[in-house]
């Protein structure tokens, strides 16, 4: 009987996650009329991480080489891990009759959010190497994650799982690469 209760709890949590998503999507319609939410989502794309790392090295910021090493190795693990999880778990993206996401996602599955995973991985690596950027980079990571909900391509649990996954991977490589 305990397994049945666990399954029932899972279904209730999923229904709550979906209800919160659709409520947020409706409430944030005005944000989709601005370009800002689209910019935050795009800022979580891969090339911008490489650009930041390159600028840190060019500017000869102290700790930039260690940051680049961690970044390269951590992303080499993160990318196949979140893609693999998506293909194993196969959670469909938000979809209802008369619902239209504001952007076309890169793939068909939503859990975990790759943008959120990468943003929080990047944030913890930046904070460890360049602590002065702590507040700004974590605010940016949260806004990247939230933009994915606002644009209609991820449920709240997708971005929360991505934030946890990215932070965990980052912490692992901070400990391993000194």
Automatic annotation (TrEMBL):
User: The Phosphatidic acid phosphatase type 2/haloperoxidase domain covers which part of the protein?
Assistant: 69-174
Question: What does the record say about its membrane topology?
Answer: Multi-pass membrane protein
Where is the protein situated, by its record's location annotation?
Cell membrane
Among SMART domains, the record links this protein to: acidPPc
Q: Which InterPro entries match?
A: PAP2/HPO, PAP2/HPO_sf
Q: What are the TM regions of this chain, as residue ranges?
A: 48-65, 118-139, 159-177
Which superkingdom, per the lineage?
Bacteria
Protein name in UniProt: undecaprenyl-diphosphate phosphatase
Read off the lineage from the record. Bacteria, Pseudomonadati, Pseudomonadota, Gammaproteobacteria, Alteromonadales
